């Protein structure tokens, strides 16, 4: 294993509360009392455009803009870090493992989170919503990452907290790992047959060593 591709939200940074509260703010304003925080969990993972096309197909741009405005304003106060993420990434990088991010978020929002974590220096590049025509589970962003890294698919793994990540990895022909700290739950991720389930970020050190 020479390269690890990471989803961002819910994988490297705990943005679940931020995302749920942002959706609740936007949806309560437009559809008062129709959505609960539990309803919003299913919106975690897909791109904002995909989600709002289902909720309010005639108001997608407006809803996305309202979402981003509130999300940015409350980002730093509502996100938290997962245990062991930074130290594990540092060890992987020291071992020569190449690291990149493949997300459905815009690159500037990913960068905001990385800056907060103090982790920007650990990744070679970010691939976000603005870099592709088709987001996960389409293989395009994963294949783009492989191309930029100049490595073989067999040496690469896609890691994430949702089925989009696992399916994108499988569609691109790379190894996959789901994270048990996903808000969707470990059992949910196992339905998509990832090659690995991480119960703690440090599990990656063992996987890389054994591979």
Structure, described:
The protein has 211 residues and is of the alpha/beta class. It has helices at residues 16-30, 37-40, 48-55, 60-78, 85-94, 107-117, 140-149, 163-172, 186-190, 203-210, and strands at residues 3-6, 13-14, 80-81, 98-102, 126-127, 156-160, 175-179, 196-198. The strands form 2 sheets. Strands 5-4-1-6-7-8 form a 6-stranded parallel beta sheet, sandwiched between helices. Helix 6 (107-117) links the parallel strand 4 and strand 5 (126-127). Helix 1 crosses helix 4 (60-78) and helix 3 (48-55) crosses helix 4. The termini are close together. The model has no long low-confidence stretch (mean pLDDT 96).
Distinctive features:
alpha/beta, six-stranded parallel sheet, two-stranded antiparallel ribbon, 13% strand
- Terminus-to-terminus distance: 6 Å
Largest sheet: 6 strands, parallel
State the helicity in percent bands: 40-55%
Beta strands, count: 8
Mean pLDDT over the full residue set: 96
**Which secondary-structure class do the elements indicate?**
alpha/beta
User: Secondary-structure element order, as H and E?
Assistant: EEHHHHEHEHEHEHEHEH
- Order of adjacent strands in the largest pleated sheet: 5-4-1-6-7-8
Strand content: 5-15%
Q: Gyration radius, to the nearest Å?
A: 17 Å
Concise account of the structure shown:
This protein is an alpha/beta fold. 47% of the residues lie in helices and 13% in strands.
Topology diagram in text:
Blueprint: E1 3-6, E2 13-14, H1 16-30, H2 37-40, H3 48-55, H4 60-78, E3 80-81, H5 85-94, E4 98-102, H6 107-117, E5 126-127, H7 140-149, E6 156-160, H8 163-172, E7 175-179, H9 186-190, E8 196-198, H10 203-210
Parallel strand pairs: 1-4, 1-6, 4-5, 6-7, 7-8
Antiparallel strand pairs: 2-3
Helix pairs in contact: 1-4, 3-4
């Amino acid at each position: 294993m020479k390269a690890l591709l990471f989803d961002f939200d819910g994988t490297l940074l705990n943005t679940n509360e931020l995302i749920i509260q942002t959706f609740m703010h936007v949806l309560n304003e437009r559809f008062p009392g129709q959505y609960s925080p539990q309803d919003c969990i299913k919106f975690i993972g897909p791109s904002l455009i995909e989600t709002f096309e289902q909720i309010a197909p005639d108001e997608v741009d407006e809803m996305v803009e309202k979402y981003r405005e509130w999300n940015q304003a409350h980002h730093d106060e509502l996100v938290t870090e997962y245990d062991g993420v930074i130290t594990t990434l540092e060890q992987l990088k020291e071992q020569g493992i190449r690291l990149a991010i493949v997300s459905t978020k815009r690159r500037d929002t990913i960068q905001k989170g990385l800056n907060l974590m103090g982790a920007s220096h650990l990744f070679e590049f970010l691939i976000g919503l603005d870099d592709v025509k088709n987001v996960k589970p389409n293989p395009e962003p994963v294949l783009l990452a492989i191309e930029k890294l100049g490595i073989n698919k067999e040496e690469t793994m896609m890691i994430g907290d949702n089925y989009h990540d696992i399916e994108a990895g499988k569609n691109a022909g790379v190894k996959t790992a789901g994270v048990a700290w996903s808000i969707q739950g470990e059992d949910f991720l196992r339905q998509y047959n990832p090659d690995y389930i991480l119960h703690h970020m440090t599990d990656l050190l063992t996987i890389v060593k054994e591979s």
